[in-house]
Amino acid sequence: MSSKFSTGLFAAALPFAAAAAPESFTIDAYHSFPYFDTVHLGTSVIRGRFEKISGKLVLDTAAKTGTIELTVPTATLSTGDNDKGSRPRSRDEHLRSPDFFNVAEFPTMSYKGTATKWHGDAPATVEGQLTLLGVTKPLTLTVERWKCGPDPRTQGKRYFCGGNATGAFNRSDFGMKFIVGPVSDEVKLWISVEAFRD
Amino acid sequence: MQEMLANPAVQGGLAPFIAALTVAALLAPFRLGGLAVVAAFATAVYFIAGFTFEPLTATRKIILLGFAAPLAGIVIDFAFRPTRFEAWALALAGAAAAAWIFWPILAPKGLERALLPGGTAVLAAAWTVGFSHSRLAEDGVRAGAAGLALGAGAGGAAILGASLTYGLYGMAVAAGSGAFLLVQMIIGRKIHAGATFMLAAAFLTALLAAAAMILAQVPWYAVAALALVPLAASLPVNAGAPVWLQALLLSLFGFFVAGIACALAWHAGG
Fold first, then answer.
1. CA nearest B200: which of B137, B152, B157?
2. CB atoms A177 and B270 under 8 Å
3. Measured at the alpha carbon of residue B70, what is the angle toward residues B64 and B72, in degrees to the nearest 5?
């Protein structure tokens, strides 16, 4: 009797034990994009994004810990201007050149961070390191929204998390000094992420 | 003032030209007028990227070599007797420099994709440096005209190939060479160029053009065409003609070839 009771107690406690363990997630590349904003000639905001991203999340909501690792192929950047028209080159071609992202020499940029603040079960602040153009500098991301749950597209068979995070950095800190001023030094980031539990 | 100094035309043209003119005028009596090119280039680097060398990117390697070349040139000009192997050794140094800069970028692409740009970069650097040293360095006007056209061609092609940074560096070399030529045109006699001038101009322009090919979008055949500029600057002109006329003619020969390189870069953009 005692043995059956303890087995039952263990079985009942199992889901909680599982929830407390760190869980690993893989980025959903079809619903995850890093966007970037710069100010052009002090007037309009030019927004672009990278079309591909890969990475991993590890979350432990019970222990309020989490890490994220993202890798972005820089050649996938797009600002919606890929047609040079009557100009020597399009804006996207220029952004891929050594004047800006230098994608031939630095084909990827990456971010590694740790969730340091939480609001309930959701990470609120991620402190980490951005590596761009071979330079690694601190970058803090603020998580604007975050939700985890069963994926409705698979009738709940898959479990996933997703949300948005924002941050900003000065591109000159990473050696991207070309026409700082006419194109703002500050680059604002807006990252949308969805990730499936492994 | 700050706004004016942020203007790319000032950073890559006017400021380098003034620096080079000052250096050429002051140091020509000491056979060091050729330092005009590195003065122009250093001025452009100061305004555009600054003197930071960490991490050591391809561009920063080019900048380092651009500073080292005239120093090596001074040693060659003042410490060694000319030998017929000198040009071959410098050509080899040009090839080694191109390999050192671009191999880490090209190696991951695999031999098939790396061979054409890598081969073009190595051969263009070897040819430009070796030929310029053997056939142009002893004639201040020919050297200046070659530097002017090489700089303008590398700069123009780089701008058309989507890199304004390399474009401005190329234009700075052109501005420096132009100042070096102008001093000769004003005083009416040729001044010493030597390896001090020619190494810096040839190394920098060959490597900038190669970088614009590998890291931006200048086609390989535009780089190959640009490498023919020194050949154009070696064409015969009347040695008895006034210096200003020789400078004008040789610059026109060089510009013609550089123009072809720029046209090829433009055409490659579709």
1. B137
2. no
3. 90
State how far the Cα of B197 lies from the Cα of B208, in Å rounded to an integer: 17
Q: Are A57 and A25 in contact (CB under 8 A)?
A: yes
Which chain A positions have a beta carbon within 8 Å of B10's beta carbon? none
One-letter amino acid for residue B107 of the chain: A
For chain A, the farthest-separated pair of C-alpha atoms sits apart, in whole angstroms, at: 85
B50 touches chain A (CB under 8 A): yes
Express each pLDDT in B224-241 by its tens digit: 999 999 999 999 999 899
A99 at B interface, C-beta within 8 A: yes
> Nearest-CA distance from B248 to chain A in Å?
29
Give the length of chain A. Answer: 198
Tell which CATH architecture fits domain A20-197. Answer: Beta Barrel (2.40)
- Which helix (H) or strand (E) is B154 found in, with range? helix B140-160
The beta strand positions in B77-230, using DSSP E, are: none
Can you give the residue ranges of every domain in chain A? Answer: 20-197
A176 vs A152: CA distance, rounded Å: 42
A198 touches chain B (CB under 8 A): no
Give the mean model confidence (pLDDT) for residues A171-178.
92
Minimal-distance CA residue of chain B relative to A177: B49
A58 Cα distance to chain centroid = 13
- Nearest alpha carbon to residue A129 among A67, A61, A51, A184: A67
- φ/ψ of A28, rounded to 5, equals -85, 105
Query: How far is it, in rounded angstroms, from Cα B97 to Cα B65?
Result: 8
End-to-end CA distance of chain B: 39
pLDDT of B166 strictly over 50: yes
Q: What is the mean pLDDT of residues B166-184?
A: 97
Amino acid present at A164:
N
Residue A41 token pair: 């000639």
ipTM of the modeled complex: 0.86
Residues 6+ apart with CB under 8 A from B215: A97, A98, A102, A104, A105, B58, B59, B105, B163
**How far apart are the CA of A44 and the nearest CA of chain B, in angstroms?**
20
A98/B163 touch (CB, cutoff 8 Å), yes or no: yes
User: What string of DSSP letters covers B221-258?
Assistant: HHHHHHTTHHHHHTS---TTS-HHHHHHHHHHHHHHHH
